[in-house]
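Final report, closing paragraph on structural work. Over the funding period we assembled a curated collection of sequence-structure pairs, and we close with a single example.
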Amino acid sequence: MFTKYRLPVLLLAAFLFCMLTGCSKYDERSALVPALYFEKDGRSVLFSIVKYGKTVSYRSDGGSTYKQLSTNYFIQANDAESGELIANKKMMHSSKVKFQPVAVMGTANGKAWIFMNGLLAFDPFTLELFADKQIIADKNPVLQGKMPDEKKYYEYNTATGNILITATDGLKYTVSTTSLLATPIDEDVVVVSGIESARKALQKKQDLLRAQYDDMQVWYRAFNKLRFEKNISESAFRDSNTKYYRLRDSISNLITQVRDDMSQVDVNYHAQREHQRRIENLNSGQKSYTDLCTAVDSFHGKWFGLLSAADLEKPDTHLSYRSVNSETARNKLYQAPLIRNDLLKKTVEPEIGVPEKIHDAVYLQGGFLLNKTDALPMHLENESGFIICSREKVGSKGNIILTRIDLKGNARWSVNTLLTEFNDWIFTGKKLIILANDNKEISSGEANLLFIIDLQTGKSVKHDYYTNGMRTE
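Its predicted structure, as stored:
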C-alpha cells in the first residue's frame, strides 16, 4: 500500500519543501522567438509566447544543481517603447500540448496568430481571443472536425496575410485572417507566379514570330522558283524581294526584342528567388553573428561598403549582398557611384565605380545591420544613415557593438550591447527591438532579454523575461 503511493507522496514532499525553502528563485521564464510587433492608435506592443517553468524540486550536489520544473505557456504583451510588462495570460501546461512546436505564425490584420494545440489568434493589446479551431470551424462547416492538430498543416502567407490549411482529408483551404472564412483551393489548377506567367506569354509570342518567319521563308523560296522558271517578271520579283527583306527585318527585330524581354524576365525571376531565399534564411533557425549584417549596400543611388584592405584587392563590380565572415577584418566605410551603362534595360545591374574611403573609423568585422522583413540593410531616413554592427574583440565571444552613422560615416551614437549574438531583432523605423539570451539557465534559441534601442538617441531600456521585470543597469 505504501509503495503504491510512494512516488506521489515524495513529489508532494519535494513540492512542500520547495515552498518552504524558497525554490521559486530557481524558476525559469523565457520568451520563444520570434516575437511580434504591433502599432495602433499611437501605441506599440511586443507580443510573445512565454514559457514559465516553476521549480517543484531542487538539489545541489558537488557544485552541480538539479531541478524539476512544471512548465506552463503564457502569452504576453510588453510596451514596445518602455519595455514594461502590460499583461500576460496563462494558456496551458506543457503536458497538455499534443504536438510541438508551440510557435508564433504572423501579424495579419492587427492580430497575433500563433500555433498552440491548434490555430489561435489574439488581440495583441488586450490578449483577448479572436480565433481558435472551434471559432473557425463554426464559420466554415466544411472544416468541422477536419482541422489537424499539427502545425505542419498550417502555413502563414506573409504576402497575403492569410492562412493556408491542409484539412485532414487532404483538401486545402485559404482562411481569411479578417473574416475567418475559408476558400477551397482548386487542386486541379496549378498556380504560377506573375513572372512565370509573363515568361510563358513571351515564349508563346516568340513561337508565333518564329512560325511567321518560317512561313515567310517558304514564300520567299516560292518566288525564287517562279523567277527561275520564268513564270514571274523581274519587276514583280524585285517587288517581292523588297517586301521580303522588309518583313524579315521587322520579324527579326521583334524576335530579338522578345528574346531580350525573356532575358530580363529571367533576371528578375532569379533575383526574386534569391531575395526570397535570403528572407526565409534570415527568419528561420538560430542566427550567428554573420547572419546579422552584410558588407555592402546601396542608398540614394550610391554603393556603400565596409571594406578591409584585403577586400580592396578584389573590389566588387556589381552589387552583391554578402556576409562579413572574417573575424579579424578591420573594416572602414567606402562609397562608389553606381553606373548604369544601358539606360534602356532597367533590370541590368549597375556597375560599381571606384570605391573611395569616406571615414577612418574602424569596425571590427563590421557590417550593415539587416532588416529581417526584407533581408536588406536598415535605412534610417531621419538624418539618412545606417546601423553598423561590429565586434568589441575578435572571436565569437566578442560583444556586439551597434553604431548609428550618417552617409558621411559620422557616428551619431554607439551602444555596446554586451551580447555576443541576437536571437531575434525587429526594426520599427524608430526603434530597434532585440531579443537575446544572456542567462545560462535559459535554453539556446529562447530569450530572457528584451532590449529596446531608440534609433534617434541611442538610449535603451531592458526587460528581463526571467525575472519578469525591468533591468536598471
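The mean pLDDT is 88. Residues 132-190 form one domain. We thank the funder for supporting this effort.
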